[in-house]
Amino acid sequence: MDYIVKFAEGFINLFQTGADTFIDWMTSIVPLVLMLLIAMNTIIQLIGEERINVIAQKSAKNPFLRYLVLPFLGSFMLANPMVHSLGRFLPERYKPSYFASAAQFAHTSNGIFPHINPAELFIYLGIAQGIQELGLPMTDLAVRYLLVGLVMNFIGGWVTDFTTSYIEKQQNVKLSKEVKVEG
Questions:
Q1: Helix axes 138-171, 70-78, angle to 10 degrees
Q2: What is the pTM of this model?
Q3: Which of 98, 131, 139, 152 has a CA positioned 20 to 30 A from the CA of residue 45?
C-alpha cells in the first residue's frame, strides 16, 4: 500500500511542479516577452513597416548581415526568445537560417551579455568555473566564447542555407526570396 501512496504523491507532485513553473513564468518571462513585443511593434509602427521591409530586403541579400549582424543586434536588443521575431522581416527562404544563427547566438553571448539568455547562463558558468580554478581570467574566456560564437553562428546560418536549398530540391518546393510580411 505504501508504494501506491508514494506513487500517487509523486504523480501529483509532478503536476504541482509544473503548476509552480507555470506561475513563475507568468510572473517573470511572460510579462518581459510581452513588453519586448509591444516595444518592438511600437518601434516598427514609428519607423514604418514599409521601411523595415526595405531594410530587411537589403540585409537579406548579404549573408554577413543576415547571420552575423541581425542576430547579434537582435539578441543584444531584444534578448532570447524575442530575437526570433526579427525573422518575420526576412524572406521565407532565409528564415530557417536566421533562426539557426539567432538560436545559437543566444548561447554564445552569455559570458559578456548574460541578459540575452539568462536561463542558459549555467552552461557558461560551468565552463568559467573550471577556467577560474586554473587561475585564468574569465574575461578572456567570455570574449573568446563570443568571437568563436559569432563565427560559428554565421557558419551555422550559412550551412542551413545549403540545407534549405537541398530540401527545396528534394521536396520540389521554392521558397520566396522576397519579403512578405502579414500584419
A1: 120
A2: 0.70
A3: 98
